[in-house]
Amino acid sequence: MKLTNRFAAMLLAAILALGALPAYAATDALTRGDAAALLVDAAQDYNPGVEQSDILKGYGDGDLGLSDPVTRAQALVMLRRA
Known about the structure:
Elements: H1 2-25, H2 32-43, H3 52-55, H4 72-81
Helix pairs in contact: 2-4
């Protein structure tokens, strides 16, 4: 029984470790501009007339940061606005 528990724990640990590899191996990050374009295209069916300016508000200095990588929080805010 003890050996079975150890094997199950090792198997689950290996599955979790291997599942995290694609996140570290990703080299092409989605940019803010790409994410906004995808959301505008997807939102047209549900919210006709939505534009990129409705989704992206930019930073305090007025820069939209279209070529910056998008974070999860930014993506969620853009999704909510779409």
